[in-house]
Design brief:
By secondary structure, the chain is mainly α. Helix content is 73%, strand content 0%. It contains three helices and no strands. The chain is elongated and about 50 Å long. The model has no long low-confidence stretch (mean pLDDT 85).
């Protein structure tokens, strides 16, 4: 996932990226996904369902300001 983001940066004109950037991007992405997945779980459990739906994910993203 991080490599895809780095490749996207290359398309907009970024020539070089420091090694620290990879670790920082991975940490930020992991933290964001943990938060969203935790919220999705709470929403799904609150609705007393066993299946996560697209509206559950959208609501979790909205709760996180995305």
């Amino acid at each position: 996932m991080v490599q895809h983001v780095v490749n996207s940066l290359c398309h907009v004109g970024v020539k070089r990226i420091g090694l620290d950037t990879y670790a920082e991007a991975r940490t930020a992405l992991t933290s964001f996904l943990r938060t969203v997945l935790k919220d999705v779980g709470v929403i799904t459990e609150g609705a007393r369902r066993m299946t996560v739906t697209v509206p559950d994910v959208l609501l979790a993203l909205k709760r996180n300001g995305r």
